[in-house]
Specification:
CATH architecture of the largest domain: Sandwich
Low-confidence stretches: 1-12
Oligomer: single chain
CATH topology of the largest domain: Jelly Rolls
Radius of gyration: 19 Å
Largest sheet: 9 strands, antiparallel
Distance between the termini: 28 Å
């Protein structure tokens, strides 16, 4: 992963170390160029302290706002990059199946307790006594991760080339007022075929898929410091209140309150 790191971030991670948690400190993700697709033997947790973390893996894209984390299982090919001024805590984790950690990539809501534990872990040495204070911190982190709520920040990307082209077009122009039939025609499909293939490949119809695109773009833009009003307008909503209503229904809180968490 490309990292513009602070001087106290270790320059290398021993992927063969058997520690339960290997903390890589607090650093900054580059915002211009995403990392080359790569994998780690250990699982990786990236907790966003500031800015949005973008991750591509398992035929999906995650955009994770500050206060949440992206979980990348071991040996999972992925790319990571930041949106805006991104600061994050990076942990590499070796754990047995008994730890009950998520088997697939996901976004995790970080509680206040877990946040403090992650910040403390970022100060731990790469090698520590598993029976000492650092080992107990690592154990509690694993316990907290096993029960942490999963957040719906995943945008599935279909394998069909035409559907992938459609996703790119919708992301590039999220405010477009085109109908479903018009979007479908743009990639050489009928509306019925489009919905059938989306349902078959990603388990959702066009309307829900498009709403998920809007939510993830909103999270990326809001985390970079843009106003709720400008984000709503750029997503094509006629008023700020209609955008806030959509966001609240999807996420459970209005955007201002959500990010103030």
């Amino acid at each position: 992963m490309r990292l513009d790191v602070r001087a106290d971030w270790p320059t290398a991670i021993d992927d063969d170390a058997r520690d339960m948690v290997v903390a890589a400190g607090v650093g900054r993700l580059e915002t211009v160029e995403q990392s080359q697709r790569h994998r780690h033997r250990k699982a990786q947790l990236l907790y966003g302290v500031r800015g949005a973390i973008n991750c591509e893996m398992e035929e999906a894209v995650w955009i994770v706002p500050p206060g949440s984390a992206i979980w990348i299982p071991g040996d999972t090919p992925h790319t990571v990059f930041g949106s805006g001024d991104v600061e994050c805590v990076c942990l590499f984790i070796h754990a047995t199946p008994a730890a009950r950690l998520p088997p697939h990539g996901c976004a995790i809501l970080i509680s206040d307790l877990l946040r403090h534990l992650l910040m403390r872990a970022s100060e731990m040495p790469a090698q520590y006594d598993p029976d000492g204070p650092e080992g107990r911190i690592a154990s509690v982190i694993l316990d907290e991760l096993a029960t942490a709520p999963i957040e719906n920040f995943r945008l599935p990307i279909p394998s069909d080339p035409r559907l992938r082209a459609l996703a790119e077009a919708m992301i590039a122009n999220p405010a477009a007022s085109s109908t479903v039939a018009q979007w479908a025609a743009g990639v050489g499909m009928s509306e019925r075929t489009l919905n059938r293939r989306l349902s078959s490949e990603i388990g959702m119809g066009f309307g829900r898929w498009r709403r998920q695109i809007h939510i993830l773009l909103a999270l990326r833009w809001l985390a970079s410091g843009r106003s709720v009003q400008s984000v709503g307008l750029d997503l094509g909503y006629e008023s700020t209140s209609s955008f806030v209503s959509m966001f609240r229904k999807a996420v459970g809180q209005p955007p201002g309150r959500y990010l103030a968490r």
